[in-house]
């Protein structure tokens, strides 16, 4: 089993360029270039972890108390992220993305330290692609959902007398907006990671 | 050039299973299977076109007039999809997705009729992947944004006295909800198409 590099029943070595198959086209992605791609993946994952944790912590610290005047009534307002399903959804998704990224970083970090390639097999590559794709879609969903609630808070709802919440609650609204920006940035980074995953999958046969 | 199946400088044929390379793994995706995958792509694209046009037409026909009582005041309500930025966004994205799908269907249809493969080159494959990925993310964004507005209409906003809009406007709300469901279904179909694109990219070298 382990006693020879060439299995005994092959015995003939053809130069790669003369095999008449498309194996040639993937050679630029091997070796050094693949090593660079792996380091780039790890860096992007770490950056994405930072942005999603930032989004998460900005959102969970968003709260403010104030008063608002609707149709002549003074209504005390206490704004907190957990009052909106969309903001709760953003927190949940950001936490899940952070966990996914920490897991991936631990696996690929330990593999890099041992000197083995970060992605062990095609199936592993597909699994990472699927995870990144699903979480990119989830972050896009969470960011969009939260930003449409946040924009309603900013502008009011056009077909009612609902006023602009963000005048009395600008501290809360700013924090939420910044959190949403970081969520979209995490989504953008994950979309780049998806492309890198596909590059890896299309370079390995 | 065309006079021999084996290029003269190879001359040796090795049984595929004994070449000791991973070329074997991609063979099931060639020939007949690839033909099936192409037909499946066209069917999924056609289905996705139907769902996105349905979402679009349900949304642009959503409007209703009614009255609502807020804090003792009778307020006349006229609800229309174009009153909400999120619903306008959904209409725009659905229209863009439908155009993208019509273009892709025209290209791959004419190629299938001529008997050539639907995807001409690796670059073409990457282009289709990029288009499908971007539009899947855009549909997810539009669907989430619209559904968070729609759920606010259903439940009211928890930190204000805003009531449930969908009691007096149930016809409008039902139409919007169905449109959103079709948007998410289009997104799901495009996500499957993305996986098929990646399968194609990873089977061609």
Automatic annotation (TrEMBL), chains A, B:
It comes from the Eukaryota. The keyword Transferase does not apply. It is found in: Cell membrane. It is a multi-pass membrane protein. Coiled coil: none annotated. One of its GO terms (cellular component) is plasma membrane. InterPro entries: CASP/CASPL, CASP_dom. Residues 36-189 form the Casparian strip membrane protein domain. Keywords: Cell membrane, Glycoprotein, Membrane, Transmembrane, Transmembrane helix. The chain crosses the membrane at residues 42-62, 89-113, 180-201. Belongs to the Casparian strip membrane proteins (CASP) family. Homodimer and heterodimers. This is CASP-like protein.
